[in-house]
Design goal:
Blueprint (H helix, E strand, L loop, with lengths): L3 H15 L5 H13 L6 H8 L7 H4 L4 H12 L22 H4 L1
Helix pairs in contact: 2-3
Length: about 100
């Protein structure tokens, strides 16, 4: 088995031979970011695959791309149970039946 330094040397040698200009870190960042864009993959699974002890570290790597953001908004538009214009939105527990507070 290769040591940690052995993996790095092998990666650098292959990268140079291929004429590529990215870092090993970039592969990790892309891997975690692409996983984070998938709503069917939990953040806990991503954390374990990345080897992060602190769940907040996922935020460092998981920058959602614009396509993922647009897909999330589109999911709202195509929801199975959209809010009916007749019924209106569901009232929260603080709203009660008095809607005069909304006008103030």
């Amino acid at each position: 088995p290769l040591s940690r330094l052995g993996y790095r040397r092998s990666f650098e040698a292959a990268r140079e031979r291929a004429g590529l200009t990215f870092r090993y870190y970039d592969l990790r960042h892309s891997f975690i970011s692409r996983l984070a864009e998938r709503p069917d993959i939990s953040l806990e699974v991503i954390r374990q695959l990345a080897g992060h002890k602190d769940p907040r570290m996922i935020a460092v790597y998981s920058h959602a791309r614009d396509e993922a953001k647009r897909a999330a908004i589109a999911a709202l538009d195509s929801a199975k149970n959209p809010v009916s214009e007749v019924e209106g939105p569901q009232k929260g527990p603080q709203s009660g039946n008095d809607q005069s507070a909304l006008l103030n």
